[in-house]
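Researcher: Going back to the complex we discussed earlier. I've cleaned up the inputs and rechecked each line, so this should be the final set. Can you rerun the prediction on the complete assembly and write out the structure?
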Amino acid sequence: MDKIVINGGKPLHGNVQISGAKNAALPVLASALLTAGTNTFHNIPDLMDIKTIKNLLISMGAAIEGEETIKISVDKIINPTASYDLVKTMRASILVLGPLVARAGTARVSLPGGCAIGARPVNLHLKALEDMGAHVELNNGYIEARAKKLKGAEIYFDLTTVTGTENIMMAATLAQGTTILNNAAREPEVVNLADVLKSMGAKITGAGTDVITIEGVTSLKPAEAEIIPDRIEAGTFMIAAGMTGGEINVLGCNAHHLDALINKLRDTGMKIAPMKNGLKVSAGKKINSVDVKTLPYPGFATDLQAQIMAYMAIGSGLSVISETVFENRFMHVSELLRMGADIVIQGGNAIVRGVPKLHGAQTMATDLRASASLVLAGLAAEGTTEISRVYHIDRGYQTIEKKFSALGADIKRVK
Ligand code: UD1
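Model: Rerun complete. Updated structure for the full complex:
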């Protein structure tokens, strides 16, 4: 199994180009299930999760060509099933559920089960489909959903759920009548998906607010669309600049999607300035400790919580990091402790007392964003850090070691 080995302590300098957003590309690719004909999607990142969803869609009858630009057509759904093997490696496979029921009238999707960052149920996806008239059963670990024709409904999500909003928005495009999603997720990835669906002929208003209205149509046509830049990848590089005392240009990102992070990083003392096609990001003279609370968008992203914690581990004071989106999303803490961090967990809060330096250690990636925090800690630490189980990083970061190495880091992948 591959490892990443980092000799830390080198300030980062230069340009990094941000890839397309994984969390936008996944639902957009799944949306191809809604229409016959060839869709063209640009700026698809080269990631394990993208390979997983491609395999899933191919098993359902999709014809797919290309990497960064993908041409995908699903003229007929031959097998509306998402197997346990695929869903357990990537929970976002649940995104095929809504489109399958809407177009094929039936779907069999494995229930995701637990994962490293908490229980992560899909009850809200299922309740919304039932509200739209689907018959939903759980059999042998599989969700089985059927509906001759979904019906528009007024949906209330108890919690804001990103993939839940996306799943039901896709299902509602082909339903009979109007669906209103209340307490909908406002993430930029939801807006990207809504834009793609609109180019397919869907009638959607309100995406980006917490009430989305979808007027069902009888069929959709294929679309050509672009995936937005990955705000989590961009944020990870920005934090890396602050942690290593560097100055980098983060190119191709959308600054507006990063507002909550930019505000926080400025409070830590970093300088962030807009430039043509991106952001110039520089470390401050010292690292002010700040408190962080994760929230649904436009709040601070839970997918950047592990990375900001690695940063606060070398802050000049005390920082309280509160995780409110997922329970049990502190898997990175025990690894950061092995590198000399001083962190105590109290319920959903991590109390981080900054230390002057982290030290290289052997560590293990436990989930996607936790592993990114270990890379950041390794880049800032004194000495050598080894990160095993790199497949977690490969799910969501495109050639992370190449991008950091181009910025002057001493980082390599070892077989
Ligand atoms: C998506 C992102 C993930 C990000 C998360 C929160 C994708 C592919 N993944 O995950 O990177 O960390 O949003 O920003 O876009 N919940 C329920 N019942 C449900 C659905 C969710 O209780 O039916 C709970 C979850 O357990 C969690 C919270 O709602 O506590 C938010 O989860 P959700 O927004 O659904 O996360 P994902 O869509 O899975």
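Model: Worth noting: The chain is about 30% helix and 25% strand.
Researcher: Good, that matches what I expected from the previous run.
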